[in-house]
Amino acid sequence: MRDVSFGQYYPSDSFVHKCDPRTKLLFLIAYIVMIFLAKNFYALGVCALVFVIVAVASKVPFKSLLRSVKAVLFLLAFTAFLNLFFHSGKTVLWQWKFVVITQEAVYFTVFLAVRLFLLVLGSAILTLTTTPVALTDGIESLLSPLKWLKFPVHELALIMSIALRFIPILTEETGRIMNAQKARGADFETGSLFKRVKAIVPILIPLIIGAFRRADELGDAMDARCYSGSKVRTKYKKLTFTWRDLIALLLIVSLIVGIVLLRVYTPWLI
Q: What pTM, to 2 d.p., does this model score?
């Protein structure tokens, strides 16, 4: 559980770390759109190449990026498993009664797994290279036009930032609870699947109680400091665009234009 790095910040003095958080958010949105526009492995290869370039520029160890997948590894496997049996096709590879596995289903399952894998890795780079405070400021700045509609932009950005920050905290808390239960004789590794799932119940109850306690303490700390998100607040560090952000924005535009042109002129390729 301690190896899960999603939601944690990795300090470094890299090109990506120095970029404006708004630029990184826009780049992530463009990257997600690029992934979902991909229709075959050629396009996913381009997405993977973009990810590798950004990962190298961020100077974040690939082990930390791969550890971020652990948090959603079960979801990835479960989604791929469902598509393997429920995706239709013509070329039958294996059949038993009403269960049919086709060649098209295997292709789509692998394609979906790679797509979700790249999606999680791209999101992990954002959290690993951006502090929660900078991420909150970036989200609030991008959503600032909604303030004209009386939308609580600052509160929404703060909630999202706190939720990301609580992921590693709850993960560490889960590890401590599991170690305490093991010291009392609990067994989470042997037995049937039903038995192991049943053994998790003693973990969930203290974990939920601890999460509510942390949320209550955080609310009291914010009230003690007279925090009020509804009022106009000043910033200790103001967000500014630099030449790095210009390069990143040009790359974003190039990616979007390239994907659109490829879909129009070479639909068989992408």
A: 0.74
